[in-house]
Amino acid sequence: MASVAHEPAAGGPGRGPQSPADAGGHRPGWKAVLQRVISLREGSIIVVTVVTAIYFAANTSSFFTGTNFKTLLPYFAPFAILAAGEVFVMILGEIDLSIGAMYLFAPILFFKMNTSVGLPLVPAVIVALLMCAAVGAVNGFFVAVIGINSFVATLAMLFTFEGLALIVSKGTPVATPGASLHTTTQNVTHIVNGHAVTLPEQVNHISTFAKIFGGGTYSELIWALVIVGILQVVLTFTRWGLYTVAIGSNKLGAAEAGVRVKLVMIRNYVLCATLAGLVGIFEAVRAATVQPDPAGANEILFLAVAAGVIGGTLLTGGSGTVVGALIGALFLGILKEGLVLQGVNANYLLFYTGLAIIVAMTANVYVGRVRRGQGSG
Amino acid sequence: MADPPNTQPQVATAPTEASDDVLRVEHIAKRFGPVTALRDVSLHLKKGEVLGLLGDNGAGKSTLIKIISGFQKQDSGRMFLHGQPYEPKSVDDARAKGIDTVYQDLALIDELSVYHNMFLRRERVMRPVPLLNNREMKREARQALDGIGINIPRIDVAVARLSGGQRQAIAVARTVNSDSDIILLDEPLAAMGVKEGAQILDLVARLKEEGRVSIIMILHNYVQVFEACDRVNMIQDGRITLDRPTSETSVEEITNIVVDEYRRAREEEHAEAARSGASTSDGPPPDGAPQPS
After folding, report:
1. Do A242 and B158 count as a contact with CB atoms less than 8 A apart?
2. How deeply is A37 buried, as exposed, middle or buried, from its count of CB atoms within 10 A (0-12, 13-18, 19+)?
3. What distances in angstroms separate CA A45 from CA A35, A276, A334, A364, one per listed residue?
4. pTM of the predicted model, to two decimals?
């Protein structure tokens, strides 16, 4: 067993899925399991997240409960989707700050398309997302073709489109189309002391549209898992992912090898902006209100970028993981939910979140060093 | 910068009409802003031939390679591939037409594995879902590397972990493996140990024997040029100043040409300095061979 634990994990430096099965077939000890986990690119954030969850479970009574899981979801699923798109830009070695504006602008577009233009709900969503995609293409054009630094270009787009969102909405919140509740009185049967008792009750309904697009309890979680799953496969097992890593690692080299660098970069910006618009619509449907609030959108933008970085994607490019971003978002969600459950004063919440991110990243970097140290072939 | 008087015979400016030329380059010029990289370059490449390209740093060798490989476009001049006009629109386009390149900066992607690098832009994918067929790529990469006798212990590690020579070998193997009929090698022996360099030269010799591919190779080491090449072209100051089969020239002759060039440049500098009235106390240029910087 000891020999297993001291052997460098053979899959270490490679990319996730090729870590070989345990050669001997005997059950690996916990050390070996731990080492296997750490040898993943996502390993360090997994360890940090589990430790955080254990901490809150030990210090609060209601952390590991079903209801708490449901309240945790909105703190986590939207960021996972946003971060998944952002990871594709970050691996290029670029950044997209305009996702805050897409998050804000898409539901307003959706509202306008539905109410002013008169499109049905789903086509209105599609048009809103197409417009986000177009903005993403413009982002990509400025960064990849014109050659503006991506931080500056997308910051300008962030301001521009948050401003446009305020202009178009006149700064007034409106009810999200298709997300309103309607209440009916139904006969509901309960079993009480072995007797079937049927009583009329008030039951709230949301439309199927709302259930799918963010209103249902697990709707965003399912979207998040599906999107993250697909994008991780795209990143690891397709040409698109390969070229994304290649550009982030050696842009000139990728171009010389024949990779169409500008096209791939624009495509990734389109993906990122579209996903941000989708999350904006989800959140507007979930809250049943389209809220033109740039400050809130900016906070969401930074948390999404943080989720990507915490998850193990380098801001310098060339390396990253979508699943890591999901776990990074989960970490941020657990942190916020745990602090709330511990009864931390609302004024202290941001303060503790900041400290916790610093501590987590320090642990993350340290564990990462252990991973690379053992991975040398 | 003043043009030096052309005392060298302009051998290659008008290529002879030869039917066995796979590639002809005629009167190519290229400027980068104020810098003239190529003034007027013409050369030709026969089928199965290994052509060595010599010249000092900055003489324009790499620019010429980048133009032929479709990475950059010339300002003027024409190229012919198998007698047909050849105007590559991109690296991919040039590759589709059978011209592939090993660049001086290797074009390797540090973060990607050896086999992903070898198959970059030629990935094997599964059907019908176009997922990467990593198993197939690993197998073929291993075969290709074994076939040309290059020893890379593990092909699933990122190339960042390999030595300079191993990286160079992978870049060369990638190109050789690409079914191209013209291969451009920009300093394939840079950063290589003696043994690794010998392996690459062996590989070139083997390709020459097979006679399938034609090769243009930029080299710095004259001895290696005479070992590997059928013919040698010298680029000086954006022009071809020498075009001769290696059997009709020698290391000494080429060294002398370079030294002469160096002397003449120095003398001109002195003349210039004297003309502008600023007398210099520099001695005459040293007699030894120039130190390529």
Report:
1. no
2. middle
3. 14, 23, 13, 6
4. 0.79
